[in-house]
């Protein structure tokens, strides 16, 4: 998709003040910055708490070398403002008054203590959109409770669906910061609705996002299974939690890696594709027999088929199985390790990863923006800011971002 | 099979919300596409879902039926009424529904006429399907200048694997999200849901809203390309930098770390057994203050004074012993009681809840009004998953439960497209609609 007019990003000219101390707020700021907004991360003198979270570049444990911070804060500016003092609070409110959006992840009590409640912020400007992201939202019986990514995923129910067939093993938290990421996604959608509303009304508003609410609607089939047949789903190893057990879908391959493949024996087309493929390796055995053209027969002999498919995958590498299966029209996936992603020819051809330079560490390979527009050039990637790197410019009112 | 007649309350009405006045010709189907355009329908857009009577949308077919026994989603019921599917109702509420047979010339012509009356077109077919029908971005711009064309796919619309087939679990595997989830030394536990059907849908909704926001400001339309795999990779997180900056491989025996964190050094941090069958409670202690709260909540057991647990780093280094001792205390206690007690002592803790807990006992979900109800002519009253955010002024416009198959053919093709009664009847007879 050929870029045309530069300086024509989605959020060109938009100013965002970010007071965020968790991945939900930081990822939201990053997505806005990647689309052209001027995002100023306001930090206390000791730095955002996220600067203390490892891993660290070259094991240098200081605020300017947290890879977690780097990941979630590309394309932002950093300004140190000690909003806990009267003078700092006034300076903070002046920044907010000139902004379109203020993102906060502080608790209700924390905002009240700082006299930076959403109403205090909104008094600074009627156009301001305040996006509050908290574990439980700003009201309700649990509003002041504590949470985390793990606790959030547990309470919101996605965790109940994740883990192993063996239920003596507890549910296992999916990797990354997916509880926070879910809250971020909803906050982004809500903010966009508020921005669109403001285009016709000129008025800002408060957007109150609770991670718990977000996760309570993010377990896919679990709620519909309860809304309609009133049944619960039970976790299974690396495949859908279901009301009744289903066959394993993760197959080990010759190179100790795994492919994900669900044997849908009901449909004839993928069945024929699979058997033809197995036959090329001499492993179709009796599956070529005419009885197997009948879906019911396949269903009755499912165990036998599954055994043969297990052997079939064990005798080839996961990479071979992935590409050959896909070439034959089967929906099969390889369980890539993060290391593998940088060598994937498809992601490379799409220039998905971008290289970001760091002055005193090796360059990083970062994911590019997850959405592409035909006539909008991507924003050039910039490393996360050092603590207070842009304080003077920000206080002097110099704009950053795209234009 | 006669279709129930729409009742008065299902008649099309003026929509409210920030997206009122935007008409979407929506070719989306399956989970990811249906969820992506649901948000637009919820906030006032006139989303016209275009369906195929021959190839019925999967959420209509998955056997999630009210007042019926448990079936896993592979156990489809032959010749089931497509209007009874609960998942479809959840995904397609507030949308209008029409049917077009795109295999016919007349059907494709009708689709073009509908697009000419729309300012957004959305689709999540395998790459090439829309092109086969002639519906390229260039053609769409001829039909509707400044159109927004939202294209959602597993792999994106360019690159050597653009034609690969995927759905949630395949996307999770290929993007790295499965591998990073599990106990060390075992197969990945990955995901028990199509997380990427949700997340890719949310990114697609956001991309659509970004395009609308930008068009409102500049007048320019755009073609959107969102790859679910790329959205998935961006959700893998900081470990990508541990690999690319520090050259530290994730292919190693102590990775991934199950319910423990590599960073920060939280401990205890895990999911602990509670009273009852397969009942669990999550506990996460990040600092000395929370540890002191936990020790108090447990009644100051002597083991908590062990020097192995003196500092956060000590506790992090001795998690095996700590987890065993803590499990000894949680086991036999009710998961919600443990949560209440620990939260009262300033410790992040939460019962592992299921859908029944969320729907029947969770006071926060009830207070925040996360779920809502609407009636459906075939299914009857049903619950829906709401949008989990609260605005001080914007409101969700719940207009109607999901459309019956072809429910709005008459309104859309006659009132919007402008077919005469005769043309409409002819297309119906010929199986075009």
Describe this structure in words.
The complex is a heterodimer of chains A (403) and B (433). Chain A has 403 residues and is α/β, with parallel strands linked by helices. Chain A has two domains: 15-218 and 349-395, Rossmann fold, CATH 3.40.50.10540; 250-334. Chain A contains 16 helices and 14 strands. In chain A, a hairpin with a 5-residue loop joins strand 9 and strand 10 (258-260). The longest helix of chain A has 24 residues, at 178-201. The two termini of chain A are 22 Å apart. Mean pLDDT of chain A is 95; it is low at 1-7. With 433 residues, chain B is of the alpha/beta class. Chain B has two domains: 8-233 and 369-429, 3-Layer(aba) Sandwich (Rossmann fold), CATH 3.40.50.10540; 269-360, formyl-coa transferase, domain 3 (2-Layer Sandwich), CATH 3.30.1540. Chain B has helices at residues 30-42, 58-61, 86-92, 105-116, 129-132, 137-143, 168-174, 195-218, 228-234, 239-244, 288-297, 312-317, 319-330, 335-344, 355-360, 363-368, 409-416, 421-429, and strands at 23-26, 46-51, 96-99, 120-123, 148-153, 222-227, 269-273, 280-284, 349-351, 371-374, 382-385, 389-391. In chain B, strand 7 (269-273) and strand 8 (280-284) form a beta hairpin. In chain B, helix 8 packs across helix 9. The longest helix of chain B is centred in the middle third of the chain and has 24 residues, at 195-218. Chains A and B meet through helix 2, helix 6, helix 7, strand 6 and helix 8 of A and helix 3, helix 7, helix 8, strand 6 and helix 9 of B.
How do the helices and strands line up, and which of them pair or pack?
The complex is a heterodimer of chains A (403) and B (433).
Chain A: E1 15-19, H1 23-34, E2 38-43, H2 67-72, E3 77-80, H3 86-97, E4 101-104, H4 108-113, H5 118-122, E5 129-134, H6 149-156, H7 178-201, E6 206-210, H8 211-216, H9 222-227, E7 234-236, E8 239-242, E9 250-252, E10 258-260, H10 268-280, H11 295-300, H12 302-314, H13 318-327, E11 333-334, H14 338-341, H15 345-349, E12 353-358, E13 361-367, E14 372-373, H16 391-395
Parallel strand pairs in A: 1-2, 1-4, 2-3, 4-5, 5-6
Antiparallel strand pairs in A: 7-8, 9-10, 10-11, 12-13
Helix pairs in contact in A: 1-7
Chain B: E1 23-26, H1 30-42, E2 46-51, H2 58-61, H3 86-92, E3 96-99, H4 105-116, E4 120-123, H5 129-132, H6 137-143, E5 148-153, H7 168-174, H8 195-218, E6 222-227, H9 228-234, H10 239-244, E7 269-273, E8 280-284, H11 288-297, H12 312-317, H13 319-330, H14 335-344, E9 349-351, H15 355-360, H16 363-368, E10 371-374, E11 382-385, E12 389-391, H17 409-416, H18 421-429
Parallel strand pairs in B: 1-2, 1-4, 2-3, 4-5, 5-6
Antiparallel strand pairs in B: 7-8, 8-9, 10-11
Helix pairs in contact in B: 1-8, 7-8, 8-9
